[in-house]
Design a protein that fits this description.
The chain has 393 residues and is mainly beta. It has five helices and 25 strands. The protein folds into two domains: 9-67, no CATH class; 73-294 and 382-392, Kelch-type beta propeller (Neuraminidase, 6 Propeller). 9% of the residues lie in helices and 34% in strands. The strands form seven sheets. A four-stranded antiparallel β-sheet has the order 5-4-1-25, with no helix packed on it. A four-stranded antiparallel β-sheet has the order 6-7-8-9, with no helix packed on it. A four-stranded antiparallel β-sheet has the order 10-11-12-13, with no helix packed on it. Strand 8 (168-172) and strand 9 form a beta hairpin.
Length: 393
């Protein structure tokens, strides 16, 4: 078997230690270790200090796995935990119990959220532990900075007060270590969010603690761990969706609604161009006034996908939308996303006795390859997500 030679420079970028595997040159040892599946990397870190340093020091190990075609693509999902934990705080209780009604009062509990991870290649699920017994903010945005090897959870609702928060949590994915990032300048939830370029995350819109739709926008530099304010949008947009578009690091905010028109989604959007530090409006790009774009759209720097269960071709949209027909009629209980070249859809049970269904399908240039295939979901991971992102490891 011929083993491809790895340059000493590249191997040196991956690790700063010697004797990874006794008797093997460091370059060859790295070539062996980057081929170990992700599910075993946690155990690898316990073998020796050199291996731990190799895996957790920075994102170079992941970049080497991508270079040799061994990286695995994980889908990160912010979703309610199921079932609620006993410590969940009751927020409403039905005390209208009568002698004729012997049933127990219904108690509505504040949900708790978790960060779940689905490995499509291995068909495995796990949940990332959160530090110091803290709780993940409800309805927070999940965004990935691939080159930095980081997953960010931004904004949402404080689990105790149920008020919008400015919090930022950063997960160093290689080392699986959490840290708090610098908070946003403004509390917000249900806002547009996207990573743009290798180090920046843009946020805009959403609503404040009075349910007022926000126009404000800001950008986070993950390397400097600091937020900067950018000009506000021309319209307040609650429940809007964010994307990075093109290769020129522009940020698009799709649809949303104003304070006085809650639930009536706008047909337009706005695009921020950092080159001019200004927003421009784009008309007639969302054709579903009764449907939120959240959970119905997904994309990256290339084409954007719109998932629908009605016949409506968006291929001529100015945003280069591609319409993807959902595998079944869904109503509003659906969450669709993107996992590399695969479209992934979770559909809620249409009856209380039915669970959620997850399906995926490969796509290329807007065309499906084959048919939708079912994905087995463990019961603990079967709630519809709020936000998602994918990362190579």
């Amino acid at each position: 078997m011929m083993i491809r030679e790895v340059s000493k420079k590249k191997a040196g970028d991956v690790h700063k230690c010697h004797d990874l595997i006794p008797g093997l040159p460091s370059e060859l040892a790295v070539e062996c270790l980057i081929r170990v599946p992700y599910q075993f990397q946690s155990a690898m870190k316990s073998v020796c200090r050199s291996w731990r340093t190799l895996i957790t020091s920075d994102s170079s190990f992941i970049q080497e796995r991508r270079r040799c075609g061994k990286a695995e693509l994980l889908l990160c999902l912010v979703q309610p935990l199921k079932p609620p934990t006993p410590e969940s705080k009751p927020v409403e209780e039905d005390n209208n119990k009568t002698e004729d009604n012997k049933s127990q009062p219904r108690v509505f509990c504040t949900p708790r959220f978790g960060l779940s991870v689905y490995n499509s290649a291995m068909s495995t699920w796990h949940r990332v532990a959160f530090p110091n017994k803290e709780q993940i903010p409800l309805f927070c945005e999940c965004v990935v900075l691939q080159d930095a090897g980081k997953v960010l959870l931004i904004g949402g609702w404080d689990p105790e007060t149920l008020q919008p928060t400015r919090d930022v949590y950063v997960l160093e994915f290689a080392g699986r270590k959490w840290r708090r990032g610098t908070p946003m300048k403004e509390s917000r939830s249900f806002f547009a969010c996207a990573s743009v370029g290798s180090t920046k995350v843009y946020v805009s819109g959403g609503h404040d603690d009075q349910k007022n739709a926000l126009r404000s926008a800001e950008v986070y530099d993950v390397e400097k761990d600091e937020w900067s304010t950018i000009p506000p949008m021309t319209e307040g947009r609650d429940e809007c969706q964010g994307f990075a578009i093109g290769t020129d690091q522009r940020f698009c905010v799709l649809s949303g609604y104003g304070t006085e028109s809650q639930g009536r989604f706008r047909s337009d959007g706005e695009i921020y161009d950092p080159a001019t530090n200004s927003w421009s409006k784009i008309e007639n790009i969302w054709r579903f006034p009764d449907t939120s774009p959240r959970g119905r759209t997904a994309g990256d720097f290339g084409r954007l996908w719109c998932f629908t269960d009605i016949e409506d071709d968006l291929s001529n949209s100015k945003l280069d939308f591609e319409t993807i027909q959902l595998p079944m009629k869904t109503g509003s209980s659906v969450f669709a996303g993107r996992l590399g070249s695969e479209a992934v859809v979770m559909i809620g049970g249409r009856k209380e006795s039915e669970g959620e269904v997850m399906m995926k399908m490969r796509m290329t240039k807007g065309k499906k390859i084959g048919e939708w295939s079912d994905v087995q979901i463990p019961s603990a991971f079967s709630t519809l997500p709020f936000s998602h992102a994918s990362i190579y490891v």
